[in-house]
Specification:
The chain is mainly α. The protein is 89% helix and 0% strand.
Length: 180
């Protein structure tokens, strides 16, 4: 009987220690949950600051994609154009293919600086808007309108990127076929 009483006391003691740890963990868990929810709403894409942050990331990604198009696809197609122009037999008439390739290259070459300029402008507008939001310069409707304007500008640039990527991908296939 005495052993069983000691075992019960030890068990109760361990349970209480364990119970206190569980309560402390539950409290910490609640605090972390509240903090996480606060952070998620503070930077959620639906909040103005979250939307601005999301657009800033998209603008940076778009800028990188334009640069990649230039560094990789454009430069490679320039080399391919030169190769085809100088190495394909005159009996094989590829003038239409070369003309189309040249047109896409020239189009990208003329559009790229404007795309990059528009991206720089959008990034600056978003940065300024973020500061204005922190300083409560505009009401919610005005902020939302400006966010929508920048999102529309980004949509246009992203559509241009997709257009050129598709054209360059198609031209790479044409070039492969002509090199055979």
């Amino acid at each position: 009987p005495h052993c069983s009483k000691i075992i019960r006391q030890k068990t109760v003691s361990l349970f209480l220690k364990h119970y206190n740890h569980i309560q402390a963990l539950k409290s910490l868990s609640k605090i972390f949950t509240i903090a996480l929810l606060f952070l998620m709403t503070a930077c959620s894409p639906k909040s103005p600051s979250g939307a601005i942050s999301s657009l800033q990331k998209r603008a940076s990604k778009a800028e990188q994609k334009v640069q990649n198009l230039y560094d990789n696809d454009f430069q490679k197609l320039i080399d391919d154009f030169s190769y085809l122009e100088n190495n394909i037999s005159p009996e094989k008439d590829i003038s239409k293919e070369l003309t189309l390739l040249q047109a896409y290259l020239q189009q990208f070459e003329s559009e790229r600086p404007m795309m990059l300029e528009e991206l720089d402008f959008t990034k600056q507008q978003l940065s300024d808007l973020s500061i204005d939001l922190k300083n409560n310069i505009y009401d919610d409707n005005t902020i939302q309108r400006y966010i929508q304007d920048e999102e529309n500008a980004l949509h246009i640039i992203e559509a241009q990127i997709i257009y050129f990527q598709e054209k360059f991908d198609n031209q790479r296939e044409v070039v492969r076929g002509l090199k055979k």
